């Protein structure tokens, strides 16, 4: 039987957290249109997702930083290798994913919500942007891991 190293455990946590961040967004995107029109259900579902999504995003950041060292990359020389340059692009995508989700969450906060409900396209756009950028970040992560 193969033994499991610390680096593999961290990568495993990283992939699990990516599943929660991306998979949760997919599930919420599918459910919200059905839940709208049922009182507070859509809003409650969004809040429940956020309770697990942000801890998962935190795990992605922490394990991602550890992955960088485990993948043999150096922060001071990121632009010197194809894998390092791929990581730079990936980090931009991660930042966009977190930013879009954060603004989206702020627009759904009590008080702001009633106003933003009049602009459902803003929420759809921000949610889609967060999901697409996270999916691309995962693709670049796979590329780095395979390099
Ligand atoms: C939305 C956030 C993120 C997602 C969805 C994501 C997703 C992934 C996925 C799916 C992999 C591939 C794992 C494999 O194929 O074994 C990966 C690898 C990797 N990720 Fe992320 N990641 C995110 C954030 C980050 C951050 C913030 C960093 C750095 C600070 C990072 C650094 C890395 C590195 C260096 C690898 C390659 C690991 C290796 O070669 O062993 N990731 N990521």
From TrEMBL:
One of its GO terms (cellular component) is membrane. Signal peptide: none annotated. Pfam families: CopD. Keywords: Membrane, Transmembrane, Transmembrane helix. The chain crosses the membrane at residues 12-32, 52-75, 87-109, 121-145. The keyword Cell cycle does not apply. It comes from the Bacteria. Residues 46-144 form the Copper resistance protein D domain. This is CopD family protein. It comes from Candidatus Aeolococcus gillhamiae.
């Amino acid at each position: 039987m193969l033994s499991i190293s610390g680096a593999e455990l961290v990568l495993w946590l990283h992939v699990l957290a990516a599943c929660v961040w991306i998979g949760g967004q997919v599930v919420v995107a599918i459910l919200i249109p059905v839940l709208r029109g049922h009182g507070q259900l859509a809003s409650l579902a969004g809040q429940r997702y956020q309770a697990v999504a942000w801890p998962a995003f935190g795990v992605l950041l922490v394990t991602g930083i550890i992955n960088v060292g485990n993948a043999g990359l150096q922060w001071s020389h990121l632009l010197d290798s194809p894998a390092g340059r791929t990581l730079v692009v990936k980090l931009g995508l991660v930042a966009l994913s977190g930013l879009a989700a954060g603004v989206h969450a702020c627009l759904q906060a009590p008080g702001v919500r009633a106003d933003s409900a009049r602009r459902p396209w803003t929420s759809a756009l921000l949610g889609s942007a967060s999901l697409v950028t996270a999916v691309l970040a995962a693709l670049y992560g796979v590329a780095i891991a395979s390099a």
